[in-house]
TrEMBL record:
This is Sentan. PANTHER family: PROTEIN S100-A1-RELATED, S100 CALCIUM-BINDING PROTEIN. One of its GO terms (molecular function) is calcium ion binding. Coiled coil: none annotated. The gene is SNTN. It comes from the Eukaryota. Residues 56-95 form the S100/CaBP-9k-type calcium binding subdomain domain. Residues 1-35 are annotated as: Disordered. InterPro entries: EF-hand-dom_pair, S-100_dom, S100_Ca-bd_sub. Residues 7-17 have a biased composition (Basic and acidic residues). Signal peptide: none annotated.
Length: 147
C-alpha cells in the first residue's frame, strides 16, 4: 500500500521457550500458525520482553500476534481474511463507516491491492487509516481526563 521497505527481522516475534525461533536466522523465519487453543493473552505472556511492557507496546504486540495467527506461511494476509478481521476484531472502529467515502476508498484500495494479500506493514496502515476516520476516535478524543 505505501511501498515502504522493511526487514523481516522487524516482524519477527521471539517467543520465550521456543528454541526453533531463537536458533533460526531471522531471514528464514516465516510466520507460523499458532494453535487456535492458545489465547492471545497467553501468547503475550510468553513474550519475555513484554513482561513489564507499556500498554502501547502490548497493544502493538497484540496486533502483531493476531496478524501472525491469521496470516499464511509467507506472512501475508488474504483480502477476505483482512476484511473478516476488520469486522470481528476491529468492529467498534468500523461500525457506521460503511457509507463514508473515505472508508469506501480504503476498502476499494484493499480490493485493488495487486498481490491480493497484505503484509504486516500494509495491514497496520489499513488499521491506522480506519482508526483516523472512525467515529470511535472522535469519542475517544472527547473523553475527559480524571485527575
Amino acid at each position: 500500500m505505501c511501498g515502504c521497505t522493511h526487514s523481516s527481522r522487524d516482524q519477527t516475534l521471539h517467543l520465550e521457550g521456543d528454541p526453533s525461533l531463537s536458533a533460526a536466522p531471522p531471514s528464514t523465519l516465516a510466520p507460523r500458525k499458532m494453535r487456535k487453543s492458545v489465547s492471545i493473552s497467553k501468547q503475550l505472556a510468553s513474550i519475555k520482553a513484554l513482561k513489564k511492557g507499556s500498554d502501547l507496546e502490548k497493544a502493538i504486540a497484540t496486533i502483531a500476534l493476531i496478524f501472525r495467527n491469521s496470516s499464511d506461511p509467507d506472512g501475508k494476509l488474504g483480502k477476505a481474511i483482512a476484511k473478516d478481521l476488520l469486522q470481528t476484531q476491529f468492529r467498534n472502529f468500523t461500525e457506521g463507516q460503511e457509507t463514508k467515502p473515505k472508508y469506501k476508498d480504503l476498502l476499494s484500495e484493499l480490493d485493488e491491492h495487486t498481490e491480493n494479500k497484505l503484509d504486516f506493514e500494509d495491514f497496520m496502515i489499513l488499521l491506522l487509516s480506519i482508526t483516523v476516520i472512525s467515529d470511535l476516535l472522535q469519542n475517544i478524543w472527547s473523553v475527559k481526563i480524571m485527575n
